[in-house]
Amino acid sequence: MSRRILVIDDDQSMCELLQESLQRGGWEVVWRLRAEEGLELVREQNFDVVITDVNLEHMSGHDLCRNLTENRPDTPVIVITAFGNMSSAIAAIRAGAYDFINKPIDMTQLAHVIERAVQHRHLREEVKRLREALGAAGVMVETVRGAGYRLTTQVTVRPASLEPVSTQAAP
Question: DSSP strand E in the chain: where?
């Protein structure tokens, strides 16, 4: 695991504080002061997590979050702000943020959020890999969610005809 974090914040002292704290936790931390530079870096390099402030010069943190999740949907984005309120948190989540943290930052809380985000990313990657493996094996899995219920139907097909051989509903 690479254990790399990108911090995007126009406050250099905040970037340095996060870098120092997260490096003690074993993370490689790269930071940028401008949203555009952060976006460019994300296009060129892989990061396990991106942390960004809501209030940035030249681009809002919500727009940056939206851009990041469009370019790298597999990379969790954690949004931080000193001006946190419910509407800002909702806007961040709608823009694709994994989580939203108010300043002053509790570094223990941030470490937990980062670890959860990375675990979530790995689980999504595993689900994607398993679905691809099932597809290659001729098994279609369809999951239907709604009204608090989850129904998974598995259909095994014959590779030659692609007609269903058996259907099994999971509990």
Answer: 4-8, 28-32, 49-53, 77-81, 99-102, 139-146, 149-157, 164-170
